[in-house]
Amino acid sequence: METTAQPVLSTRKIVITGVLAAIAILLGYTRLGFIPVPNLSGNATIMHVPAIIGGVLEGSLVGSLIGGIFGLFSFLQATTPVFKNPIVAIVPRLLIGIFAYFAYVGLKRINEYAALAIAGIVGSLTNTIFVLGLAGIFGLIPWPAMIPVIPQAIAEAIIAAIITVAVVAAWKRVDSGAGGGAKKV
Amino acid sequence: MDEFEISRNITIGQYLALGSFIHKMDPRVKLLSFVLLVAAITFSATYTANAVLLFVVFALVPLSKIPLRYALSGLKPAIPIVLLLAALQIIFYTSAFAGGQNCISFFRWGPIDSNTCGAQLAIVSAARFVELLVLTSLLTFSTTVTELTLGTEQLLSPLQRFNFPAHELALTMTIALRFIPTLAEELERIMKAQVSRGADLGQRGRWRFIQQTRALLPLIVPLFLSALRRAEDLILAMEARCYVGGKGRTHFLELDAKPSDFVALAMVVLFSVGMLLIRFPF
Asked: Treating both helix axes as pointing N-terminal to C-terminal, what angle do A60-77 and B116-142 enclose, rounded to 10 degrees?
């Protein structure tokens, strides 16, 4: 019998990656993913949340690919010099889903909801820290100018955590076929 | 009701059918050239190198027949932030970061250190931004999204031998692009549904960010759930039709590189490698 190697990306992973990446791109196009805030950077973002959710639902590879597509679009569409640098725009975004996935898997056994919230926070902070870190290394933003971003980073992490918990908890309940209130693991 | 018109206002890809030499180039060649030129721009930190790059990038614009104001369309909204970053770079860039370069300070007070290196960084960053802006415009205005996806797939396909999922990646991109208008419609429907229940989505403002975030949740969460539900349908449909990936699949579009494509590619390779290797004096 002919045996075929297990594909690296199953149909499920391909489709989930594509659809969640579409959300990330859509949030960018509609500017719904940007929340205007009163500080220097101008906008807090939730565009990295699909990468976190993808990582949590389907593993680090899916999370990483969604982040990659999001990064690619943010590079091509960038209207600030910071994201017109391909390394700053793409590399940190590849890591969002990976870190979020490992945070989730590591903590899942203790408490599902806490694990989801922390995955959201970890993914969000991965984005902030690596983007700013690389921007600093490339000299795009001087280090002292990054201090005002800290409250925004915290806000982004909290929003990401809320959305991750809301979406994944609701989805898993749908997925397992258990309606409201029924306990099913 | 203008704020709900999402799907109508979204244009994916910005292709302008102009039929120039750059439009007719093989997308694989265009993508390779793009990557090489982006690398050359990203790693050029001197005045002279950036002057050369600016010249070359602007010389490509007439070759593509794309009007200059289209190619520079992203520049105007970016000017304030470019100036702001430049000011910050000039004020705060300490000579300690310059890595052995000779920086001449003109002003120093506490953490503030204005020197020639900071000024150079500011000018070079701005130049790089313009170069990349024009270059990405050239690529997206001259190449359809389908061509880009197919080009990427074929460029990556030699890696399939090492189990690299080139076809799957291209399919992922295609699905993402296909789903954007569908999800935009869905988002529109969700917005209308929430507003009809009394949700306040209007009034965007810098100081209302908490209200805005709160208003966002009833839109985002249903959007995700509906997208995931659609994904499940698609997975089921694909599996029911025994989708097994890229092996032996043919394409609607066939790419065919012409001799002129190879000449263009050779020129870009020579130029980019030259820019990366030559040490410009300042």
From this structure: 100
Domain boundaries in chain A? 11-170
A40-53 per-position pLDDT tens digit: 556 778 889 999 99
Q: Where are the domains of chain B?
A: 16-168+253-282, 180-244
B238–chain A nearest CA distance, Å = 7
Give B171 to chain A, closest Cα distance, Å.
Answer: 7
Measured distance CA(B72)–CA(A150) in Å, rounded: 33
Q: Is the whole-model pTM more than 0.90?
A: no
Show which of residues 24-83 on chain A sit within 8 Å of chain B, judged by CB atoms. 25-26, 29-30, 32, 35-38, 40, 42, 44, 46, 49-50, 53, 57, 65, 69, 75-76, 78-82
- CATH class of the A11-170 domain in this structure: mainly alpha
Contact A119, A157 (CB under 8 A): no
Give B-chain residues touching A139 at CB under 8 angstroms.
Answer: 89, 93, 97, 121, 125
Name the phi and psi angles at A47, rounded to 5: -70, -15
**How far is Cα A58 from Cα B277, in angstroms, rounded to an integer?**
42
Backbone angles phi, psi at B216, to 5 degrees: -75, -35
ipTM score here? Answer: 0.87
Tell whether A159 lies on the interface with B, counting CB pairs under 8 A: yes
